[in-house]
Amino acid sequence: MIKKIHVYDLDGVLVDTSHRYRNLSNGSIDLNYWLANHTRENIQRDRLLPLASQYQRDCESREIYTVICTARVRHDWDVEYIASELGLPNKLIMRTPNDMTPDGAYKLRELQRIFNLRQFAKLPRYYWEDNIRNIRATFNLWTCAYLIKSNNAETA
After folding, report:
1. Which of 64, 93, 70, 77 is nearest to 14 (CA)?
2. Whether residue 5 has pLDDT greater than 90
């Protein structure tokens, strides 16, 4: 029986993708650089971060509904990496192509869809995220949110 929900961001929280990430001078992500470095070879160079072991234990628990909620556009290479290195969660939330919704609003919308389901509406919810903007945008959803220090987060 599911007793709680654990939601994890991907980049900078579960996976170190800093070798293919950089910020612009205003602190926002350099999306062109990210996209140019989105290759199968570079994804395979990504490394698991310490929180990945907690995530993997959560996935094995019958009492925890696990979610990865990332602003990345869904791509087969990413899903393959998640499946092989982390293990698939109960729910994997990734953007569709052409969805340009700001990250915080995107995550709020997608997570609200899950939390509005009757079986999840009253469960405690925990969130691990490296971007304070995303925590602020989704703040009212959480029993507890944890800001993870990361080189991948926007600085502005």
Report:
1. 70
2. yes
